[in-house]
Amino acid sequence: MGKRSAAGPVVRAQPDAELELLTGDLEGSSSDEEAQDAVPQRSPRAGGGVERETAPSSTSGSKDGASASGEDEEDSDAEASSADEAAADADADDAELDRALVDLMAAQAARRGGAEGGAASVEGAKEDGYAAGTRQAGQELPEPGAAEDSNSSEDERPDRNTVGDVPLEWYRAEEHIGYDVEGRPLARRPRPDRLEQLLARADSPGTALRTIYDAYNDEEVVLSKEEIRLIQRIRSGRFPHVEVNPYEPEVDWFTREPEIHSLHQGPEPKRRFMPSKWEEKKIVKLVRALRKGWIKADRGAPPEEPPAYLLWQDDGLVADKTANGLSYIPAPKPKLPGNDESYNPPREYLPTEEERLAAAAEAEEAGERAPLLATAHDSLRRVPAYAAFIQERFERCLDLYLCPRAKKKRAFLATPDSLLPQLPKPRDLQPFPSALAMRLLGHTAPVRSIAVDPSGQWLASGGDDGALRLWEVRTGRCLRTCLLGGKVVCVAWCPAAETRLLSAAVGKRVVLLPSGVGTEEQEASAAAALAGLPAAADGGAPGELCRWQARGEGEGAELLHGYAVARVSWHARGDYFASVAPTGNTQAVLVHQLSRRASQTPFRRNRGRVAAVAFHPVKPFFAVATRTHVRLYNLAKQALAKKLVASGGVTCLAVHPSGDHVIVGSEDKRLAWYDLDLSDKPYRALRYHARALRAVAVHRSYPLFASASDDGACHVFHGMVYKDLLSNPLIVPVKILRGHKVVDHEGVLDCAFHPTQPWIFTAGADAAICMFTNP
Amino acid sequence: MWEKKRGQAGNAVQYITRNQALKKLQLKLSEFRRLCILKGIHPREPRKKTQGQNKTYYHVKDINYLAHEPLLNKFREAYAYERKIRRARNKQNSALAERLAARRPVHRLDHLVRERYPSFVDALRDLDDPLSLVHLFATLPAEQRHGIPTKAVQTARRLALEWQAWVVRTSALRCAFVSVKGFYFQADVLGQPVTWLVPHALAQVLPTDVDYRVMLTFLDFYSTLLQFVNFKLYHTLGVRYPPVVDPRLEQAATGLAALMQDLARGAGAPIEGSTKAGNPGEGAQVAERASGAAAAEPNAAAAERLGTLEARLAQLHQEVAEADDAADGAVGAAASGEESGDEDAGGIDSGADASEGDDDMGEAGVSPTQRRGGVGAAPPSAGPDLSSGGALLLAPDPPTTVAGGAAAADPDDEAAVCGALFRGLVFFLGREVPRETLLLAIRAFGGTAGWAGEGSPIEESNEAITHQVVDRPTQGHRFLGREYVQPQWVFDSLNWRVLADTRLYAPGLAPPPHLSPFANPEDEAGEDAYVPEYAKALRRLQEAARAVRARTAGALQAGVFLDEADDGGARDASAAPAADAAAAAAERLYAAELAPAGLGKRKAGAAEEEDDEEAMAAVMMPRKARHLYASIQKRRGAKRARAAELERRATALAGPGAS
């Protein structure tokens, strides 16, 4: 009933008295007998209803008979008045059928509810069900064939309508409901009104319940009781036909048990008595294989070797080589468990909650398994299985065959102190400055430079406050203060004993001052050296290299340079001195002669920014330190004697009094000791300062040198140079002097040794000068 | 002139990468892996990685070594053979397939063991990993899903038991530690420490991200190795290998006990050390009880017992003498203010109950609590017993000391102490305690043990039981004559070679912390290491036990040579440490007096000086040494900080309780 169900048949209970009468009339004479034998026949037919299936006409008869079986008796003597009774009787029989019908209706209505076209038609039909009832009663009359058709199987009965699977409300407004096979429109039949419906229902309540309205074909269909039973059976999930039993007991005709008697009567074939050809072929194959030795005859299991035997006869011979001649590297053993791996560790081993979380977070971040933290269990029975046991064993296995092994040459260290170099104790290398003896306070700004006079009595200092101060070393008294009108970046004494002359670099000037602390002869010779210079001219930059000019009365002289001067360095004899103007390109280094009051530039080319210069103490050599190299020029030959490679950013330079060693400090926190006889590379490069080096100094008589750095420390070293050429200089750090504070990233700015005593002076950015003496 | 070309000498030709090796050997990676595992070939770290940084390098000699391995061809043959079987199967030729499958070529790994471990000591040195893996697989289920064959598991189990049996028999066990991971054991095998880890006897969940084939390959080699090692060990002992397992005990899943029986029976010539003189009787007795059905065995056991009886008598004489001396030692120890007086009852002589059976149980079963009570009061109670021969076998108890059954052992002879620590103690293991590990520990230290369950040589109601090991919150019925302890007592006692105070380990109590015997503060940087409070207590106990042993040993020796030296020797043994202690105490006092008296400032200055000196010395160090030095210092610092932190926590934890 594909199409019809799609169109949504409307099932309606209908009092269809005429229809009932009609069927009664149609069956007429035979109705009694039919009814008679239909009732008793029902039960045997239920067993095997093949006949009924094959004969639709008899089915229809029996259906009607069954439906009307109760009524027909009444019909014979009574009419509509007794219809109620009849209905009451029939209800007893048909109650369940009716219930089934109502169920069916409700189910179908619910099922159709969602469908697009059907829904509207169903609802429409429901609405006007009673209104349409009377009209239909009239329609039903003239077509007995249709009633017969409706009794036949649905597959056999063609549809009247041919519109196909379209929503029926498309035809709602039309006069016709569709088209027949010839294409003529099928007129819509008038529907019975409610009164007719009521009457019909009252006439034959049994049939009315079984009547359904087929909206597709616009006709009423009365279902037979058999059909309803069929539907009921289908709905309850049983096989539709009563006679068919789908679960027949199985008779297995073909069992797997061999029968003793053959099922057929034929004679045994001949091949049963003949040697098999295929077997023969196989045997031939095997024989050939055996002969040729391809397969071996099975002589039982091979002799069982003993599972274990005495493998090692020797004892104690340990080989450190593997069989392939390589050294045997045993896998490192896993660490043995400590207290924190115990199932019941001491309570102090238990991590706090934060530690636990931190460890877990760390492991998660690293994508590793959470580490095993100490956990306490109060008894052994509470210890669970270790979840990562197999995983850990597996990882150990992986380590064993995947990890590259290397033999670590691990020096045996009894104590880590054995790594420390074997140096003489500092206390055996005394004297050296170790104790802070004096702090000279007076400057108001960082002290840039200090210098001790050759006699060791006086200390000159210059700082950013523009003052040059002269201190008495013994008492710490500030003897003189000269304001030089600019930041004093360098002070230096003239080493000549007969001339107690003081020099200072201030801006573009090099100022030469009579110190005023010497003897009368010294003062006189100093005054003579500076006398007779032209007065200071007002012109700005000098035309020549540098202009010698006098300062005020008794205030010495000054050399006006073209560029800012950073350093002044005297030759040991006190006649020559050099000034360094780092920005001066080819005029960066000027060498001045005091006696002739002449200046000259020794270098024609600029070889880098000059940081410091120094005269050789005895030989006519001149050392120039650029940022990357230290060049040693032979002044007599006017040639480059040696070029030392520095590490970078040279800031200061000092020449050992022997003249064979140069000490260089640089910005990369490194102090380099060059042995000029050895190489152009440092003999020792030491990196111990935390910041750039500012100054290095070498003691003139004691084997001491020192370095000052911006980290606020001054390191004093014992630097012994031996006379014999075979032994290298001995360098031993002896003292770290921390007398200054770090101000604006500047610490100790300069250091200078006392010429005769093992004392050192340091100038700091904290505007103080410290004097350290030996205790 | 001949010019040296790149890549023709040195590391470039000595090392090849793994892929190159695979190509050279014409192997798949899995085959190569298997071969490497079996042959013990591992990548090496070349000085220069010529082929790239992120590659694995093998030495050419290693790869050549693999190329000449007979196993390589065996594997190839096996592969071809498998293909034959597969082919037969696919051709529905099941007969052929069956025949082929039954005759699969086998390979053995004996030669690999010999190659990799030319001497026995080599094998012993590498025994940690094999034992751990074998013990793991002994507990694993034979899972089809992960391809773990049943046979491998069975073999692992057998080998593990054989090893344990040997350890028990020779008393080679030195330490046992209950970790959250499992039980760590350390044995001393021919002077080599061998450590292995046994998982807790709970069902292991097999993780899926583990390649079990790798582990099975390792297991393959390891079980071969262990088999030969076991053979050699049993051979040295003069016992047949493989030992025969008692089927009845095996059925009862008693494991070690089933195996031990064969060992104890001494299939070969029994090799007995002097310390083991008392043991065969016990073994025989256990055997007798366990398999009384066998007709021949009681006779053999009886004969053995008869044979050893005389030796036994002589030994007992000696032990009585020892006991006497040891009693003096104990009294001395108690008098010296140590806790030894409180300590648990020591051992009952093992020989007595073991060789005598039940007839003397009534007398031997005097409640240990009574005995304990009479410790200090009547040490020479053994005196009158000496006179009567019958009473001799009652085995007068040695004094209750912390030294346990090893009171007479030479304190410097670790093996003797370990082998006799639990001698004379009879343990009964509840069904909730890990039986196998405890059996191993107890019997290796000379004790006797029974357990709740089938196959136990001793019933729970036996009067001879001195210690019942239980692990339950409350103990219902208690027998009077025995101590009830938690399993940790056994492990703590054997680790420290003393009998710890049983009251601390009573069931239901939270036991004292379980300390690792491997965390040796002496090994680490001296005073830096942190020593927990309980370790200090145990160490004091240990010292007491040591003193007892030293005195006993001294007395014995003196008794042999010179009678009157007895006192002197004993006094020396005890006096020397006492003098040391006094000196140390005086020094400490002096230091404490000096400390607040204004040394602080100078000390601070001195410390700074020292720091400066250190910094200056570091100036002159080469860079490498400087880094090394710095790292060492850093590590020491971290260790010191950890110790300090632990110390701080310990005081914080102890603080509220103390105040």
From TrEMBL, chain A:
GO annotations of cellular component type: nucleoplasm; PeBoW complex; preribosome, large subunit precursor
Keyword terms: Nucleus, Repeat, Ribosome biogenesis, rRNA processing, WD repeat
A Pfam cross-reference name: WD40
Protein name: Ribosome biogenesis protein BOP1 homolog
Biased composition (Acidic residues): 86-95
Annotated Low complexity bias: 109-123
WD repeat boundaries on the chain: 440-481
Record's subcellular location: Nucleus, Nucleolus; Nucleus, Nucleoplasm
Function: Required for maturation of ribosomal RNAs and formation of the large ribosomal subunit.
Coiled-coil zones: none
Entries under InterPro entries matching the protein: BOP1/Erb1 (IPR028598), BOP1_N_dom (IPR012953), WD40/YVTN_repeat-like_dom_sf (IPR015943), WD40_repeat_CS (IPR019775), WD40_repeat_dom_sf (IPR036322), WD40_rpt (IPR001680)
Homology family: Belongs to the WD repeat BOP1/ERB1 family.
Ranges for domain BOP1 N-terminal: 171-433
TrEMBL record, chain B:
Entry GO MF terms: ribonucleoprotein complex binding; RNA binding
Extent of Low complexity compositional bias: 284-299, 328-338
UniProt-listed InterPro entries: BRCT_dom (IPR001357), BRCT_dom_sf (IPR036420), PES (IPR010613)
Transmembrane feature ranges: none
Domain of life: Eukaryota
Cellular component aspect of the GO annotation: nucleoplasm; PeBoW complex; preribosome, large subunit precursor
Subcellular location: Nucleus, Nucleolus; Nucleus, Nucleoplasm
UniProt keywords, alphabetically: Nucleus, Ribosome biogenesis, rRNA processing
Residue segments, region Disordered: 270-299, 323-397, 633-659
Residues covered by the BRCT domain: 421-507
PROSITE patterns given in the database record: BRCT (PS50172)
BP GO annotations: maturation of 5.8S rRNA from tricistronic rRNA transcript (SSU-rRNA, 5.8S rRNA, LSU-rRNA); maturation of LSU-rRNA from tricistronic rRNA transcript (SSU-rRNA, 5.8S rRNA, LSU-rRNA)
Function description: Required for maturation of ribosomal RNAs and formation of the large ribosomal subunit.
Family: Belongs to the pescadillo family.
PANTHER family membership: PESCADILLO - RELATED, PESCADILLO HOMOLOG
Protein name: Pescadillo homolog
Organism for this UniProt entry: Elliptochloris bilobata
Lineage of the organism: Eukaryota, Viridiplantae, Chlorophyta, core chlorophytes, Trebouxiophyceae
